[in-house]
């Protein structure tokens, strides 16, 4: 019921204060009922009653209870806010550290976990757990008060009190399997909704929206049913707890009345049992009402900490300022134990060389890049940056030395200047115009009303495909890395933009390590070295002229483009 990892993550100080404040409020209630019972006992005994001390006591208790309730809410807020901030910081930090590794969760699942999951956990931590500790101490405090008047009835009340947590624990065991399914269904439903919303235009175009709608409706109905099962279980458990609470209170009061009849307890003691009998079970009853929150919180806690415990990439501690050569030496890598994505790959990338990698989809090109950037680490063989093994290289050096540019780069809904400065926040305006000139966007930017301060739409939706890719390239150039990897950067752009991008890369290749991944032959014919991949292996390697002179995989794969290219000569 209690995960120790929560207390390691946050301070227990606010929770302790919260429990103490609630106990203080309960003590005030006991004092109030004691005064009332005493005055009533005096009245029933025919003794004179002075109401002024009672009125003053009631006023003081009301004021102090109001202040303690306000303080209790403030402490609850502090505890929950502290947990939310720390957990969200840890989840986002973890997400950035995992990046695009194999262990990373889907975007929709990660969003739900970091929003709804943390909200559920926050309620569990800031409300359920303090109530749990308060229940135990409150019951002992009331018992200590009542036992002064009659031992046996007080002991009976104390014995009945643990029946409620026994019911809670029993229901929790039954509900655990349901909750596992609940969160799985919940995250799956969210992921499906995100997918359907993202691909709505595609579904409409292929008339598949109705089928997807039915599928989403079925998933929502399954989630509704499992939610109703969970709520039904909660309501049934509350009914059982009510029966125990009221029966226990009635039993305690009844025994107190019998003791009074036998002359074993005073009238004030009977009144105290009547006034505090129900109060004895109220804290535990409130705990039972938080059952659903607790179960959701426990489930969310497990999933959150399972995510935070996922293995991360292990980096070295050695720093490197510059790199002039990267070598793969007999590298094997597989996403699974029974299939290799890369098999005995040996190649090299040199500074001042334009190196192209070609091959059909799934041939291992992108996997090679991910390995080189140390996003996967369970490989066999060696990956050497100059004379330094990749696993010895620090994360900071690797990040500074390399830049990956693909067609999935994001354009933020802010100014052109701010989007460019993401590549180098200290870049001067002269440098910004220089890189815009290199990618031939200078006329486009100067033609905008606010030039560099022109605000772009989200993800560059107001730019053409070619303009968008060239802006991404300009941002990458500002980073001034030693290694640039371009993964299908010319995919989906017009021919004019494609030529501009390729010319820019050729110039850049004179002083940097350039790795270019493409499916198009005419994009790689100006490369200094080409590696052809098939099924995770390098099947051919050489200069464009050497490969064109062969009749192997290279020419077969690009047969149509070779014909078009040759016809255009």
TrEMBL record:
<dbReference type="InterPro" id="IPR039421">
    <property type="entry name" value="Type_1_exporter"/>
</dbReference>
<dbReference type="InterPro" id="IPR003593">
    <property type="entry name" value="AAA+_ATPase"/>
</dbReference>
<keyword id="KW-0067">ATP-binding</keyword>
<dbReference type="Pfam" id="PF00664">
    <property type="entry name" value="ABC_membrane"/>
</dbReference>
<feature type="transmembrane region" description="Helical">
    <location>
        <begin position="264"/>
        <end position="282"/>
    </location>
</feature>
<feature type="domain" description="ABC transmembrane type-1">
    <location>
        <begin position="18"/>
        <end position="296"/>
    </location>
</feature>
<protein>
    <submittedName>
        <fullName>ABC transporter ATP-binding protein/permease</fullName>
    </submittedName>
</protein>
<keyword id="KW-1133">Transmembrane helix</keyword>
<dbReference type="InterPro" id="IPR003439">
    <property type="entry name" value="ABC_transporter-like_ATP-bd"/>
</dbReference>
<dbReference type="GO" id="GO:0005524">
    <property type="term" value="F:ATP binding"/>
</dbReference>
<keyword id="KW-0812">Transmembrane</keyword>
<keyword id="KW-0472">Membrane</keyword>
<feature type="transmembrane region" description="Helical">
    <location>
        <begin position="235"/>
        <end position="258"/>
    </location>
</feature>
<feature type="domain" description="ABC transporter">
    <location>
        <begin position="326"/>
        <end position="560"/>
    </location>
</feature>
<dbReference type="InterPro" id="IPR017871">
    <property type="entry name" value="ABC_transporter-like_CS"/>
</dbReference>
<dbReference type="Pfam" id="PF00005">
    <property type="entry name" value="ABC_tran"/>
</dbReference>
<feature type="transmembrane region" description="Helical">
    <location>
        <begin position="132"/>
        <end position="149"/>
    </location>
</feature>
<dbReference type="InterPro" id="IPR011527">
    <property type="entry name" value="ABC1_TM_dom"/>
</dbReference>
<feature type="transmembrane region" description="Helical">
    <location>
        <begin position="48"/>
        <end position="68"/>
    </location>
</feature>
<feature type="transmembrane region" description="Helical">
    <location>
        <begin position="155"/>
        <end position="175"/>
    </location>
</feature>
<feature type="transmembrane region" description="Helical">
    <location>
        <begin position="15"/>
        <end position="36"/>
    </location>
</feature>
<keyword id="KW-0547">Nucleotide-binding</keyword>
């Amino acid at each position: 019921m209690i995960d120790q990892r929560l207390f390691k993550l946050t301070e227990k100080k606010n929770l302790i204060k919260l429990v103490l404040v609630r106990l203080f409020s309960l003590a005030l209630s006991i004092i109030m009922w004691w005064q009332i019972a005493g005055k009533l006992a005096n009245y029933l005994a025919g003794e004179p009653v002075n109401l002024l001390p009672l009125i003053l006591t009631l006023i003081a208790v009301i004021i102090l209870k109001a202040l303690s309730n306000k303080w209790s809410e403030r402490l609850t807020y502090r505890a929950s806010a502290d947990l939310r901030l720390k957990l969200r910081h840890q989840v986002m930090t973890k997400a950035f550290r995992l990046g695009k590794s194999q262990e990373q969760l889907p975007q929709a699942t990660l969003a739900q976990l970091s929003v709804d999951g943390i909200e559920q956990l926050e309620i569990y931590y800031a409300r359920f757990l303090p109530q749990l500790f308060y229940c135990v101490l409150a019951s002992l405090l009331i018992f200590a008060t009542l036992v002064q008047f009659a031992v046996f009835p007080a002991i009976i009340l104390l014995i009945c009190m643990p029946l409620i947590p026994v019911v809670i624990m029993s229901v929790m065991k039954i509900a655990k399997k349901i909750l596992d399914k609940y969160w799985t269904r919940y995250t799956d439903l969210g992921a499906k909704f995100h997918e359907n919303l993202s691909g709505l235009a595609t579904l409409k175009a292929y008339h598949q929206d109705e089928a997807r709608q039915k599928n989403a409706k079925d998933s929502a109905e399954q989630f509704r049913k499992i939610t109703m099962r969970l709520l039904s279980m909660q309501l049934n458990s509350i009914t059982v707890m009510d029966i125990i609470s009221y029966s226990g209170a009635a039993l305690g009061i009844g025994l107190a009345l019998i003791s009074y009849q036998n002359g074993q307890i005073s009238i004030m003691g009977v009144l105290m049992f009547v006034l505090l009998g129900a109060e004895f079970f109220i804290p535990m009853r409130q705990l039972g009402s938080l059952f659903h929150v607790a179960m959701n919180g426990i489930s969310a806690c497990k999933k959150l900490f399972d995510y935070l415990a996922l293995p991360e990439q292990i980096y070295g501690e050695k720093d490197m300022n510059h790199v002039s050569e990267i070598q793969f030496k007999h590298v094997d890598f597989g996403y699974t134990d029974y299939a290799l994505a890369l098999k005995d790959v040996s190649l090299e990338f040199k500074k001042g060389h334009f190196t192209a990698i070609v091959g059909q989809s799934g041939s291992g090109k992108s996997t090679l890049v991910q390995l080189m950037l140390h996003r996967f680490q369970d490989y066999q063989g060696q990956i050497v940056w100059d004379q330094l093994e990749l696993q010895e290289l620090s994360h900071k050096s690797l990040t500074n030395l390399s830049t990956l540019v693909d067609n999935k780069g994001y354009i933020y809904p802010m100014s052109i200047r701010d989007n460019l400065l993401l590549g180098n926040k200290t870049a001067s305006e002269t440098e910004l115009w220089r890189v815009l000139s290199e990618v031939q966007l200078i006329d486009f930017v100067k033609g905008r009303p606010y030039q560099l301060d022109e605000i772009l739409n989200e993800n560059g939706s107001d730019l053409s495909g070619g303009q968008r890719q060239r802006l991404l390239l300009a941002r990458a150039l500002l980073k001034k890395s030693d290694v640039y990897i371009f993964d299908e950067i010319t995919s989906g752009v017009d021919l004019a933009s494609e030529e501009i991008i390729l010319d820019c890369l050729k110039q850049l290749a004179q002083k940097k390590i350039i790795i270019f991944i493409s499916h198009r032959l005419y994009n790689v014919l100006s490369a200094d070295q080409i590696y052809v991949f098939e099924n995770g292996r390098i099947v051919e390697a050489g200069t464009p002229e050497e490969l064109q002179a062969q009749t192997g995989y290279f020419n077969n794969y690009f047969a149509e483009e070779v014909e078009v290219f040759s016809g255009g000569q």
